[in-house]
């Protein structure tokens, strides 16, 4: 998809603020620093619409980006490292859980993992959680430019095994730096959101 128009509709802290337009939504999840903002910006060809966070775990809102009046990208706060109080963390965990489990418009989830490391315990929990709720998942292994071509098959194997990836879920190797994998991510988004 060629993106001309994209805007941040709302940084929501409560369900009452979610957009009521009914467009299909795709959520983006991953550990802080995995490259989520960079991926979002690369998908929409913007330099800094989605903030690249220098403070890990700072974003504690659900950010709804209206893409071409056709779908919403929903940027979910990064898990792990959150420098927030326990009570705030619990509050946001409840909000995210409610969003992921009951949002009618949610068509699927893009889960990012770092291509250089085995999926962490948090990554595995998140994937299992998404599968428990029968959400279609696209796993994106980020920062693949930091891995040599010769090692790409090993990355695929490591991520598939580490997450115990379902047959029905896809895996894309991605680089926000080179743009590798961008078209494959868009293909999945369009098919999943049916746009
Ligand atoms: P977020 O916390 O998940 O939103 O992660 P960011 O998008 O802010 O990225 C975290 C760090 O990884 C930043 O220093 C980025 O420049 C770097 N980064 C993100 N994506 C890539 C990538 O594809 N390749 C490389 N080499 N670095 C990346």
From TrEMBL:
Keywords carried by this UniProt record: Cell cycle, Cell division, GTP-binding, Magnesium, Metal-binding, Nucleotide-binding, Septation
Reported cofactor(s): Mg(2+)
Superkingdom as given in the UniProt entry: Bacteria
Domain EngB-type G residues, every copy: 22-195
HAMAP family associated with the record: GTPase_EngB
Function summary: Necessary for normal cell division and for the maintenance of normal septation.
Protein name, UniProt field: Probable GTP-binding protein EngB
UniProt source species: Lacticaseibacillus yichunensis
Gene for this chain: yihA
